[in-house]
Amino acid sequence: MSKLIVTPASSPNEEGSLLQVTPESAGWQYVGFEIVQLAAGETLKRETADQEVCLVLLSGKADVSTKEEQWLGIGQRMSVFEQIPPYSVYVTSHDNYEVTALTSLELAVCSAPGAGNHRSRLIAPAQVGVETRGYGNIERYIHNILPESEPADSLLVVEVFTPNGHWSSYPPHKHDRDALPDESFLEETYYFRVQPEQGFAIQRVYTDDRSLDETLIVKNGEAVLVPRGYHPVSAPPGYDVYYLNVMAGPTRIWKFHNDPDHAWIMTKPSES
């Protein structure tokens, strides 16, 4: 199996952790990502230390608190494929958080270096930017959970719904050079859910010189590391694909570069 694919454990550990990416395990510097599954009544409690954290309630309901705030009974969707924006909580560095599941809960814990510049806060569904990108069979649906227009030190968090038979992260683009204003350097994780669950997604990760060139078959519940290169995704016919992206780098801005061979695809055909 490719080293870019991170597979979940067969069952959660004592904290509920099912899948984990750390800078050490990924061999990079900025992005951390974890999936935690809690049964109703179970609690996850942690310190953020020098990291800022975005807790995304992928499915289920919970009470969430930090040192100074609490939000009771948040969460509304029971599946990501309901395709409604999630509840999330941004937790600043040198804070703590406690999550108590009120139902079965799937929680994404997204982390990156923090500087304590922003207060911990709730990100309610109404605050999530919803947009459609692309056209035809490259059309997909976006929930901007923590975009660069919203306060954070490092984290960028977005979820994408790719209908079956469609492509996303397309045309292929990359963000692996610290060369602003043209391109920013951002590490990235993709966390996949597939419906029906026996399906799969396809993701290619490749560089211009092909020193990295992998085509990945990604199953439901797996994550993909994108340390560099272009990284398009395909949803095969019959299988809708969801993924949660976490990005972070030295500068909190998303400036990408399309593969020149395929950039023409963004020119929408004129309608007769």
UniProtKB/TrEMBL annotation:
It is an enzyme of class 5 (isomerase). Gene3D superfamilies: Jelly Rolls. GO terms for molecular function: 5-deoxy-D-glucuronate isomerase activity. InterPro entries: Deoxy-glucuronate_isom_IolB, KduI/IolB_isomerase, RmlC-like_jellyroll, RmlC_Cupin_sf. This is 5-deoxy-glucuronate isomerase. The keyword Transport does not apply. The keyword Transcription does not apply. It comes from the Bacteria. It comes from Paenibacillus plantarum. It holds the Pfam family KduI. Its EC number is 5.3.1.30.
